[in-house]
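Fold this: Protein kinase domain-containing protein
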Amino acid sequence: MGRGQLTAPSAPYPSVMDQYGYQLGKVIGHGSYGTVYEAYFAKQKAKVAIKIISKKKASEDYLNKFLPREIQAGGTVGWGAG
């Protein structure tokens, strides 16, 4: 793999993401509290972005105040087919 082509580590058992039909791909971004992955959502046959938040890194204020807003806003974002 080349630079910037990191992928989520594979596990010997199905992950929560696998159970819900998501296949994680390469890392496409980093933030203070988490990492954003390119992913494929098999049920919708769509490419998506998944942000995985580290509860160890995130402050209580972020988890209780800002994360719920971010989740709500994320549900309203849509991209055209293609």
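The chain is about 25% helix and 30% strand. The helical segments are 16-19, 60-74.
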